[in-house]
Amino acid sequence: MRPARPADAPEIAHVQAVTWRTAYRAVLPLEVLDQWDEAVATSAWHAAVTSPPTPGHGVLVALERQTVVGFAAYGPAELTEGEQPHPGGPSTELTTLLVEPRWGRRGHGSRLLSAVADLARGSGAARLQTWLLEPDSVSAGFFESAGWEPDGWARTLDTGAAPLRELRWHALLDDDGTGGPA
User: Fold this and answer.
1) Is 109 exposed, middle or buried (0-12, 13-18, 19+ CB in 10 A)?
2) Measuring CA to CA, which residue among 132, 68, 123 is closest to residue 95?
3) CATH number, domain at 9?
4) Which of 117, 126, 132, 152 meets the CB 3.0–4.6 Å disulfide criterion with 89?
5) Which domain range does residue 94 map to?
6) What residues in the chain have per-residue pLDDT under 70?
7) In the prediction, which pLDDT does 88 show?
8) Angle (CA) 30 31 37, round 5°
């Protein structure tokens, strides 16, 4: 586990493409998956690593034998319209956490989540949040096992095909820097 480097961008884009095509084939519109442009994704991940929008944004990678097998991206959370700030302090949003399916069940996701929690706590965040596709029971189970829970917020994404509904999950950061249910 380490911060992503610019040279990791092609591997990050590859992990994203393989994971989306494998784990989300039944959820994401086929047009999105079939029109995936790995060069565009590589460029976007390179920019995320080299020119993050704020100092609070970052990308971490999980490695197995020096190969990038997963990654997590995070940054300061934005308030949803009508939402009040968390009374305990700011929130960090986990924007993406993916582990290529063939490398799953080896602890990479848990280590990525723990590292993001440590970084968030170190920056003064009191809470972590992420958005999960409503039908994604595998990710929901992962986050639930780590002490996360839905917080009642939902949003709908326009994909150009059928809209996708996402639910927001969250965990408060304890004094020791670990997430736990709110």
Assistant:
1) buried
2) 132
3) 3.40.630.30
4) 126
5) 2-180
6) 159-161, 175-182
7) 84
8) 110
